[in-house]
Amino acid sequence: MSRIRLALLGLLIVTAMAGCKVDSHEAGGASPTPEPPAVLETPAPGDTFAELWWNGKRRVWKVHAPASYDGKTALPVVFVLHFYPGDGNEAASTTGMKAKADKENFLAVFPDGWAAGYNAAICCGAEDDVGLIRRIAERMVTRWKADPKRFYVTGISNGADMSFKLAVEASDIFRAAAPVSGSFWGPKSLEASYKPKTPVSIVTFQGGSDARFLTPMKDGAKLWRERNSCTPSAPVELGRKQTDPITRTDAKCADGSDFTVYSLPDMTHAWPGSSGPLGDPSAGLNATDLIWDFFKAH
Length: 298
What we know:
Blueprint: H1 3-18, E1 46-54, E2 57-65, E3 77-81, H2 88-95, H3 97-104, E4 107-111, H4 129-142, E5 151-156, H5 158-169, E6 176-180, E7 201-207, H6 214-227, E8 230-232, E9 236-240, E10 245-253, E11 258-264, E12 271-272, E13 279-280, H7 287-296
Parallel strand pairs: 3-4, 3-5, 5-6, 6-7, 7-11, 12-13
Antiparallel strand pairs: 1-2, 2-4, 8-10, 9-10, 10-11
Helix pairs in contact: 1-6
């Protein structure tokens, strides 16, 4: 078995032992609440609360629309996924994506995971979160009149892992994904057929001092490049924070997609340039700015 497979399998066991929350119904608790009539949100500028019933559970999210939103112009959509345990409000605070949406004129969507997490890789829970995101994406097109050709997803930690999962399992929806401090890993990643069916470009950010997750992040990036026949160029130095340089490594993949890795040697498990939860304001880069630039280019 290859070194990457051994490393991934070992980390899966450790993480599984650490445990993630499981909802009470899955654990033999009470049955889900009966599904009531749907209450549809009214699209408008600013923050709008939205909900739907999915697999017998009430799932919620927020949409942030710029002041210019008029319900007629088809705007891009950025899904922003939180860490575990967390929620959409913390994803908004960490990423600063609301202010970016106001400035760049796009719709930002902040879904809450079930029991504070998304079913990504081996963590957290067993909900059909890919199906949920698909339903929300449909709602964004039909109700918010969003541009279906410009859907993107980003997230941190558990949300980053979920971003990779969506890049594979919802490649018909998302044009690009930006996982931050997360990886392409888990049991499915070991399957040779587990890759996007249509091109999805990736930009990802890895902290060199992220002790627990650095190995799966680096191995996951290598596995993605191998799986999608991506040819990397030489790393480009972007400056130094302490001793080792911050670098960007670009790769062009066989299907025409791009795979870019930002390596920040002194960063831990964080969002570069953020002062919010899990943020690192002194990381040397602003991930939010770089992510939107990457999305605009794809």
